[in-house]
Fold this protein.
Amino acid sequence: MGALGLGCVLMVLAPLVSPLPGPGGIVVFSIGLGLALRNSLWAKRRYVRFKRKRPKVGKTVDWWMRKRSRQRAKLRSQAKR
């Protein structure tokens, strides 16, 4: 529960960090999202629904987080060709 709470706090703090120079907000948000996805089944389900509705954004988020699901999807698309 602590890691899930920390992940939520980091996602909330990301917009506050984003005005600082550099990509701080993106990094803070992705760490928070990773913690939330790793520790919450509810968050995983919401993320999968989000990716189905917005595949381009989901692909970018997966790239930022280097998710294995993106790698699997890429391998499947290559196997279909």
DSSP finds five helices and no strands in the chain. Residues 13 and 58 are 21 Å apart (CA to CA).
